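Budget justification, computational time. The allocation requested in the original proposal was used primarily to generate structure tokens for proteins on the priority list. As evidence of use, we reproduce two of the resulting records. The first is shown immediately below.
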Amino acid sequence: MLERLSWKRLVSELALACLPALLLGLLFGYLPWFLFASVLIMLVWHFRNLMRLSHWLWIDRTMTPPTGRASWEPLFYGLYQMQMRNRRRRRELGNLIKRFRSGAESLPDAVILTTEEGTIFWCNGLAQQHLGLRWPEDNGQNILNLLRYPEFSRYIRQRDFNKPLTLVLNNQRHMEFRVMPYSEGQWLMVARDVTQMHQLEGARRNFFANVSHELRTPLTVLQGYLEMMNDEVLNEKSRVKALQTMQEQTRRMDSLVKQLLTLSRIEAAPVIDLKEKVDVPMMLRMLQPEAETLSGGRHEIHFHTDPHLKVFGDDEQLRSAISNLVYNAVNHTPEGTRIDISWLHTRHGAEFKVCDNGPGISSEHLPRLTERFYRVDKARSRATGGSGLGLAIVKHALSHHNARLDITSEPDVETCFTFTLPARLIVNSEIRENVTH
């Protein structure tokens, strides 16, 4: 183990260097000259080691220091140890920065590191994706020059970060910004995409507004007739009409509540176990007379069913999806329309299709048909008792069976509502594939 450099060691080295000069001076005389020569030799030796040290530090820069003797040996070794510690600390700091950046990249939020003046010195991938930043091109840029929104500029300049800032960007994303001190003179800026949350909140508000409106209309009718019956004596004709109207509105409310409960139950259902056998042909045989009764002879209804095509799934949810599609076709197409309902095996799976040759649906309405309470013709839907929930029920029921509803419409030619259950849900699918081929 090397000893550290001390004044005692330097004095002892000086004494050892002067001892030969002292002995020679005693033997031959000229003691001052011998002492001068010893000190001069010692200075030259130290100067040479200084040059070696300078060369190692500024030119050579290798990890291994030059070899040293006497007082220079602990000095070289100490510098070497200090260099090793610095390298180790830089390596640890580099690993820490890598871990921080890796963690920041894994966050579901955009992360930006800036100075208090707003100068960017790092951002993660989501900041580039959501906010349009570029890295490393934007290193050193001021964030106020890149995010040019008046609300954002005021938020940063006021430096009141107790509350987050929600900003609608040019790409229609809703971003929630939070700023917090990161270290001395630095800020950590976190931006979260809350677009979906705003959409869900808007859907929730619309849902309650629509439910309130749908229930208010029949309740208003009932209240009006009850007040009329309380204020005056109705003749038989008026009494019968009032009772019929109130019964219709009661049935309408009852249907709306049932559909709301069905939709809520389907939405809240966990991932269903698709092992229950569903006899869809039997379901359609029971549904056919109901559809014909509902039509009252106003439509030409045809069923095309594969009698052996059964599937695995949830009986209640599939029944809701299929019956809603059939009833919609009967309720929302005019008299004289031909309605074709098919349940057949295709190369993609088990396909259910309802087609009609009615007036059709304009293309701008097609993407929104499965929204709750959305109606193409509100007046006609209310006249036929529609609640605007049927296709929403179909959509959610099919999502639990890994299927989706496809809607196509060519006005005055053909409108089709189609879904296909995957082949793996068909009972005895392998046998059926062999028979088909």
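The second record produced under the same allocation is shown here.
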Amino acid sequence: MNATYMLMSIISLILVVSAWSWTQIMPSTIPFGVRIPPDRVDAPIIAHVRRDYHTGLIVIALLVGAASWFFAQYNSWVYASFAEIAVTTVLVYFYYYSAHKRIAHVKEREGWYNGLRQVVMTEIGASQPVVRRPSLLWLLPSLLILIAIISIGILRYPALPAMIPTHFGADGQPNQWTDKAMALWTLPLPVILVTGLLYTLAYYLPHTRQQLDPANPEADLERQRLLRQGTSKLLLVIATTTNLIFLFTALLVFGVLPSSSSVTIVPVVTAIMVLVLAGTIIYLTRLMANQNQSQRTQLDPNKKFVARDDDRYWIGGILYYNPEDPALWVEKRMGLGWTINFGNPMGKIIAVAFVLIIIISSLLPIIHGH
């Protein structure tokens, strides 16, 4: 069986497992991205939706895995593996959105917010606990990878032919070539862009605005503190593991490794990336699940105020668009971490920057290849 196919199947399974964990790590007052008052966290519809959602994820894992394996027997293993991830992603979101709409429908029909005083509570005082920015030691691995790529290129440059391979097919054979001078400066570029952007996000994320749940602001503040610190470190882990791929590419392009090794080493390098990221995400998920459970036991349904019903600003339950909100980053309603306020002008710029990085990283070998 193709190693790439097996690896992609593992990634697809991890995606399903992560989607399962969302019901544990999200605050109890935002089930499936729907804002609800504290006295509704035990509403029967939420338990029913959660059960159906988990059942759907099991069906996704079994059916998509079986269909992908069957398709791979008669077509390309590579196409089957990437199709499996794409289909899994679409179906996971479909089940999430279905759960989101079911709860939102009952919430609107039964008037869960009728007669309640809605407020927006944020922490701006000196009592805010210190949220430390990530240490530079978390950035060090990415910087060492960047230095290694540049050093390898400089040391190998005199011995390289005028045209060097910069893209390799599934059989490990080169199918595109680039001028060696062009490759020398274009290979480090994606590493610089990825590392710079992710470190900037990790550096500023701990001190973004903290919107609190009025039902238990103290516990919610602690939950967000842990989430900010954990997510900042996760971003730097992602930068390091992503840059490992660029390092391996540099070893191939500059002739340190034979081109045939791409067939065996790529799955190994990617497997290491997946394991490191999965371990980091599992740790952060367990940490947040425990904190959410502690916060839920302290909810006070008799509070005079409840968090404002802001569902109208969440497109599809995942995209936040609120031009009146000055915040650039807001906590996600689907999974761990933060998402951009696309109603903020700077949010639009960051979103475009992400897209450009992806395009540049993907097209550089093609643009300069011959």
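A brief technical remark on that second record: The longest helix spans residues 217-253.
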